[in-house]
Design a protein that fits this description.
The complex is a heterodimer of chains A (361) and B (333).
Chain A (H helix, E strand, L loop, with lengths): L1 H4 L4 H15 L4 E5 L2 H9 L10 E5 L10 H11 L4 E5 L13 H6 L3 E4 L5 H8 L4 E6 L6 H13 L5 E5 L4 H10 L7 E5 H7 L2 H10 L3 E4 L3 H16 L5 E3 L11 H10 E8 L3 E10 L8 H4 L16 H5 L31 H8 L1
Helix pairs in contact in A: 2-11, 3-15, 7-12, 8-10
Chain B lengths: L13 H15 L2 H4 L14 E8 L5 E2 L2 E2 H14 L3 E13 L4 H17 L4 E9 L7 E11 L13 E4 L5 H11 L15 H9 L4 E5 L5 H13 L3 E4 L7 H10 L13 E4 L4 H9 L8 E6 L7 E4 L5 E3 L13
Parallel strand pairs in B: 4-5, 9-12
Antiparallel strand pairs in B: 1-6, 2-3, 4-6, 7-10, 7-11, 8-10, 9-11, 12-13
Classes of the chains: A alpha/beta (361), B alpha+beta (333).
Amino acid sequence: MKYVDDFRGSRACLAMARRINAAAGDREYRIMEVCGTHTAAIRRFGIPSMLSGGIRLISGPGCPVCVTSDAYLRNAFRMAAQKNVTIATYPDMLRVPAGGESLQDLRARGADIRPVNSALEVLEIAGKLKDRMVVFLAVGFETTAPATGILAQRARQERIRNLKIYSAHKTIPAALLNLGKDKTLCLDGFLLPGHVSVVIGVHGYRQVMRSLRLPGVVTGFEPLDILSAIAAIVDAANHHKTILENGYGRVVREGGNVKARSLLREVFVSKDSLWRGLGLIPNSGLFLRKPYDSLDARRAFGLKEEGGRDARNGCLCAGVLTGKIEPSACRHFGRQCTPRKPLGPCMVSREGTCRAFFETS
Amino acid sequence: MTEYISLSHGSGGALTQKLIREIFAAAFDNAYLRKLDDASVVTLARGRYAMTTDSFVVDPIVFPGGDIGKLAVCGTVNDLASCAAEPGYLSASFVIEEGLSLDVLKSVVSSMAREARHQHVPIVTGDTKVVPRGKADKLFINTTGIGLVHKSLEAKMIRPGDRILINGPMAQHGLSVLAARQGFESEEALKSDCKSLWAIVKLLLQEHVDVRFMRDPTRGGVSAAANEIAQSSGFSLALIENKIPITASCKSFCEILGLEPLDIANEGKMLFIIGEKDALRALRILKAVPSCRRASVIGEVLPERRAKVYLKTVAGGSRVLGMPVTEALPRIC
């Protein structure tokens, strides 16, 4: 627990918070985190309570299930409803609602839906259910995409015919570009996601951050990591400096994980992708490239284009995901929409902004 | 040859009789059961009684530190203890899946008998049903308990300034069941805290400690129990994360799996609300008990009437500790 306790002690954390508050003075700073684990850690450790009111920590689109579009889910529901289809996906996906339904509801009515904690478990499921088509709903950022890559490789090598992959993998730098350019957000900097950075490295952000001219710090998940990153961003903003720092050097390397990156290049191709709340972001989605596209559920099931609008139920996910409103500004928050019965995806996962707010305030 | 439970064991015929006599009545043996009547007649002294019932469906039925039998006794005894009631009599009802090995049943029943004897509480009546394979999972047990109330406790007795105590490290039960279910190897380090608590409750009452209220933090863990106390008293509570004991292995396990230990079930812990002046004396009494060496004062009742629970975090910040909203680990008890 050394790497945990060293970065969690109240003396060091409070000293860092005092430093930030002194440097910040009366100015307002708008700092966005784009990682659900950061959102959860910030709330869990009570970091906002340690900082002066001028420092606004804004939660961006960091939770994979939160940014998955309604259209993708509706396609998933359609596949799940077929008689000989088994759906495998990460547990949080089961509870994400679209059009008043969720995979969990379909399962209660008899659909075969299996939660998995690792993409490779899907191989076992497909091996056991030879007479059924197993579809893996592959969601997540650069963190979970390599595991899907390995699954695709193994499925091809082992000539597994009853396994398809429906990829909704997304890449973070493309979203950063989109958010950083949004003038209504007036961001002063980004806390860059530690887990994604393990894969893409600090290098993965260089181009985007250069064009945005905003400070960004690769940040770990302990309170002292987060506070140190905030301190660096406040300093940089005060001096009008653009910085790209690695504040999570004990885990993240400049070039990231070379093997995982080359795997992503081999298996996936970047195309435009629909994000809930953010709309279509150019080159932000990872889709199976040749020859792995024979595994693509889009092709096997003739899935329609994922267009169309999200959430017409009054859920303000879009504003929450882009950090324009706090969850409490949504009239459904804590009333019709609770973690037990989420109306929108941000209330589903522990990493979702609405759920993190609901549980800690 | 291994023997298994068959549907005939639940038929009410000869095999049922054999099962009851040889396994249940033999293990739980007492004057009430020996009669094998339809109901047991008991005598109760004058006073107020607490009565509680609980069904146990834990999966797996055997886990490090206990099994479903021990749990079925401790769970009900602890529910009585949290009302300051001395467990007097228990009932035990079994729903058994066809195909359960008789040896497993015997071992569960004997651990149940051991715990009941240890707590001096007779199991005076019971029932057995067998359901076809697949219609239940191995073994479900229901226990009901009745006990004489030694001190009337109510949430409205809670006052601002009262201290909140816990009798040892949290989250052990939930994590041990999870580890056993997933087949993790560090099982020894993650032992369930499954334990009957009447003995320590009695100790505090005998020493005339100013106990205002008690709640055992089972499902939903310390978070749920603290929120229930806040809601039923109307006062807000302040807890200090650093003061809430947790073992190093539980802490690491939670970190690795991203679990919140405050939300995880306990089966041998009690949250005591104690009058401010008596808090340190209560702590000394608890600490003198070997199983409660890590007892701790973990917070206090605030004057504010908002029924919230605030947590001062390890990092020095503060936040609201909400009621856990979803079942992170189903079938934990």
